[in-house]
Amino acid sequence: MKSGGARAGAADGPPAAPGTGMPGDRGRAREARRYGRLRPGDRVAVIAPSGPAEPARLEAGCALLRDLGLDAVVGKHALDRVNLGAPGPVREDWHRLAGGDADRAADLQSAWCDPRVRGVICARGGYGATRVLDHLDWDALASAASGAPKVLHGSSDITALHAAFGTRLGVTTSFGPMPAGLLADDEPDAATLAALRAALFGGPVTLPGTHALRPGRAEGPLTGGTLSLLAALAGTPYAPPPAAGRIVFLEDVTEAPYRIDRMLVQLLQSGWFDGAAGVALGTWRDCGDPAELDALFAARLGPLGVPVLAGLPAGHGPRQLTLELGAPAVLTASTASTAAAESPQSPQDPHPAVPEPGALTLEAPPGGAR
User: Measured between alpha carbons, how far is 27 from 361 in angstroms, rounded to an integer?
Assistant: First the structure.
């Protein structure tokens, strides 16, 4: 494994130069075009590229989007239900999707290519997003993104779309809570809503960590998402670019530690982590003993020689702050000893103090507007 990424430094020494990612891929991280921020009154299309949404929860989540000042319209197939196999009567005890693959892809493409729509919001995750990728007209999607790219927002299984849009279209995307998910709860977490508002409308987002597995500081574009989806995309035309020079964000849900280990080993052996600048770990709900996970992450990611910060409130937990994948980010990870040695922040410093033991910070684009 090659250690260190562009502008990354661990507490015990300087980084190595960025390394090679996937075969044939060399060089530093490319800068993605950042999506245009929304304004009150903008129309957003709520679609379901994965599992079907429950009608009541979808309506509750759309109501919250409207409370934010957005004109939320629901995609044609968001409430459809089909099983994984051949068409036929839907069995509730079989896994369900929000319509056939071509139907879900059509909702996504129609929304992205509609000039009246300023944002595409995914209703929920589940399973099925990888199956729509081959049904999309990527030339048409690229043409629609030739101006100011619109926002694509969602998380979990939607990681497949984040990766593909970043790879194929070169745009940033928004990883965060979804209308038929956490946003449908009676009283969504206030910090969750504040971060969502900042990500969609403009403003900096800071995600504090709970503990550093390896201290240091790193800068670079943010990549990653839900670990199981990143592993599932490896070797496909939709896989995210190698992490060289980038800060990697990872999270997942209901995965046993040995499965997490296997997926990390897969990505490490493929060379995807080579030259990464740093690693930010989100929530790992129902993934086993947190102490076992920390030991696993330290063993697998520590040899990269870059900062590793754990406990960020993003992913599948009760607090889901929003991340802009592809955007410039700064990761600071401090242990108690390194934090004590750091100088206090100047009152004239325009940037907020970094929470200890560290944080992942994404700044708003200049002007915070499209």
Answer: 24
